[in-house]
Amino acid sequence: MSALMQRLKDKYRYSIVVFKELVKTDFQLRYQGSFLGVLWSVLKPLMLFAVMYTVFVRFLRFSDGTPTFAISLLCGTCLWSFFSEATTMGMQSIVNRGDLLRKVHFPSYIIVAATTMGSMISLGINLIVVIVFGFFSHAHYTWHVLLVPLNILQLYVLALAISLLMGTLYVYFRDVSHIWDVVLQAMFYAIPVIYPLSMVAHYFPLVSKIMLLNPIAQTIMDVRHNLLVPRGHPDRLDMGRQSLSFPHPLRAVAAAALARRVCIPEEQQQIRGGALVTTVNNPATDMNDDPNEIALSVSHVAKSFRLPTEQASGLKQAFLNWTKGIKGYREQQVLRDISFNVRKGDFFGIVGRNGSGKSTLLKIISGIYIPEKGDVSISGTLVPFIELGVGFNPELTGRENVYLNGALLGFSREQVDAMYDDIVEFAELTDFMDQKLKNYSSGMQVRLAFSVAIKAQGDILVLDEVLAVGDEAFQKKCDNFFKQVKDDPSKTVILVTHSMGAVKKYCNKAILIKDGEIIVSGDPGNVADQYSLENAHDLNYFKTKSESEKAYRFPNGLNPLVPMLQVTPVSPKICDGLSPFVFDVEYEYTPQDKQGYLGLILQDARRGGQVYDIDTQSHYLGVPIESGHHKVRFSIPLDYFNNSEFRIFATVRTESDDPEHPEFVAFTNDDFCCYFAVRNDRNSENGILSDRVLKFEQIEQID
């Protein structure tokens, strides 16, 4: 029970922190850049009131004959402006802040609530103006004024509920915003804002009762009655209040709860990132028996996405796809049965090529995505940095962005206060924190974002490609920091990177992900070397050749004369350079009128360049081959090899009329060449071998 209560407290605290900061930012940016600024929140409804008063009161004579009608019109205008603005902006807020939701985990309904609350603040300012005007319009305020905040809260909850429902539809169908504009226009004339309800009740009693069933109309009427309309006035009608079984305020609350349930799936309402503390219940099988306590357990996690195959952002296309039975998407499996443990004090590396599933895994760990299978358990405070500077706004100052970013990570203003001086000092931006972020250079922005990332006081730090930032001096400072973190047994770091140097330098464990699966795990050096080999294998050397070179050097590829030609390793792919590298060349050859020869080519896959080619040896075509299917074993001494990644190609060639250019019959394509890496501490990382000291040796022919 105590763990559950702690979970609920953390969830509530985190939601409040993010909500407050988003409300502040939204209201601050709403009028930023305008000459009058926040005064527009007062002037806009006043100008609208002036137009409506002139048209409907002075010209059309829509009045109930009381001196408070004008101020009542102003009050109704302010309330309607709030409802219209809150629902429109709230509906679009999830889409407008979608980039934030994809990088930081927090409940999406907070964005909608914060946006509508920004409109609520403007309404509060407007109502102060209404009250002041009321004194000059001979309004008689009574104790009923105390009920107005409850009426306003009721209207806010109703606007929030509609925003959540419409926002969910807007994510899928952009037509919703245009439809809502029309609905708002129709609702405006169906609500007694510009005309008194007594006028409708006089001519159409049934219509007035139906109008009061509208919760928006009823709420606006309640505010005007409690604030302005004197008791006994004919417009002070209680029609429709008992027409529904629910009391009117509860209808709005029920609507908001239903909207939240419909819009936000249950699993997405759970905080798994930020400041949430969870307990490990069923850890996955670890790679070793490290006795330290588990900080993160990932057990049999799988994830897939639906990739759209049809454009269906509009209602028309969605309907047509439905009538034709077109799903409009295909399933893309991104992660398959991922399991590993990270123990406290680990510096854990996750590597893999783009599209392998690293970032998806990181977002699942951070709680941004929910796995369709498997479990993720976290012990401690997890601080994710999927992208540096997430949530940074160029219109805010550096100071304001630090507090905004901290709130999104789950830290209160008091906690950010405690970290603030260290963040600024590390970023070396003391003199610039009150400048807008848009005036920062790109390097200054990165330094500030990185400083927030590494100075955040969390137990588990999740970093996605954020190491190589800033100039040389700043990188040295970052390097010193990570060395300190590496030596701190209380800190755990999960690092996703393409830098194998960083993996070897900082990490004590690592995994390599390929096509959504872990193919190598354990020692970071082995993982880094295997990653380098995978990259070398995917580099197609022949694609770097010009079209004319390919046409001349390799005109045929594999063909009926040589239907099979491949190079396979016998020795381990990662070599220490102390013993030769052994490999086999398997071929199938149909003889012709000329003798066939087997040639070998060695390429440095990391630096580029052809290190060795059999035809660079004077008047030497290669190893004579026989007809049929054969396998030949070779070895190559590694005494003079520097550390790098290499690949071996095989060719079949015959003599030609030009002794300098033999005729090529076939070559191994990129899928059937052989890749290997040399890793030896005594070797250099620079330079390319010369073929003068390189020699392939045939060991035997295996039939």
Automatic annotation (TrEMBL):
<feature type="transmembrane region" description="Helical">
    <location>
        <begin position="155"/>
        <end position="173"/>
    </location>
</feature>
<dbReference type="GO" id="GO:0140359">
    <property type="term" value="F:ABC-type transporter activity"/>
</dbReference>
<dbReference type="InterPro" id="IPR015860">
    <property type="entry name" value="ABC_transpr_TagH-like"/>
</dbReference>
<feature type="transmembrane region" description="Helical">
    <location>
        <begin position="182"/>
        <end position="204"/>
    </location>
</feature>
<keyword id="KW-0472">Membrane</keyword>
<feature type="transmembrane region" description="Helical">
    <location>
        <begin position="34"/>
        <end position="56"/>
    </location>
</feature>
<dbReference type="InterPro" id="IPR003439">
    <property type="entry name" value="ABC_transporter-like_ATP-bd"/>
</dbReference>
<feature type="transmembrane region" description="Helical">
    <location>
        <begin position="68"/>
        <end position="88"/>
    </location>
</feature>
<feature type="transmembrane region" description="Helical">
    <location>
        <begin position="109"/>
        <end position="135"/>
    </location>
</feature>
<protein>
    <recommendedName>
        <fullName>Transport permease protein</fullName>
    </recommendedName>
</protein>
<keyword id="KW-0547">Nucleotide-binding</keyword>
<dbReference type="InterPro" id="IPR050683">
    <property type="entry name" value="Bact_Polysacc_Export_ATP-bd"/>
</dbReference>
<keyword id="KW-0813">Transport</keyword>
<dbReference type="InterPro" id="IPR003593">
    <property type="entry name" value="AAA+_ATPase"/>
</dbReference>
<keyword id="KW-0378">Hydrolase</keyword>
<dbReference type="GO" id="GO:0005524">
    <property type="term" value="F:ATP binding"/>
</dbReference>
<dbReference type="Pfam" id="PF01061">
    <property type="entry name" value="ABC2_membrane"/>
</dbReference>
<comment type="similarity">
    <text>Belongs to the ABC transporter superfamily.</text>
</comment>
<dbReference type="Pfam" id="PF00005">
    <property type="entry name" value="ABC_tran"/>
</dbReference>
<keyword id="KW-1133">Transmembrane helix</keyword>
<dbReference type="InterPro" id="IPR047817">
    <property type="entry name" value="ABC2_TM_bact-type"/>
</dbReference>
<feature type="domain" description="ABC transporter">
    <location>
        <begin position="315"/>
        <end position="540"/>
    </location>
</feature>
<dbReference type="GO" id="GO:0005886">
    <property type="term" value="C:plasma membrane"/>
</dbReference>
<dbReference type="InterPro" id="IPR017871">
    <property type="entry name" value="ABC_transporter-like_CS"/>
</dbReference>
<comment type="similarity">
    <text>Belongs to the ABC-2 integral membrane protein family.</text>
</comment>
<dbReference type="InterPro" id="IPR027417">
    <property type="entry name" value="P-loop_NTPase"/>
</dbReference>
<feature type="domain" description="ABC transmembrane type-2">
    <location>
        <begin position="36"/>
        <end position="262"/>
    </location>
</feature>
<keyword id="KW-0067">ATP-binding</keyword>
<keyword id="KW-1003">Cell membrane</keyword>
<dbReference type="InterPro" id="IPR013525">
    <property type="entry name" value="ABC2_TM"/>
</dbReference>
<keyword id="KW-0812">Transmembrane</keyword>
<dbReference type="GO" id="GO:0016887">
    <property type="term" value="F:ATP hydrolysis activity"/>
</dbReference>
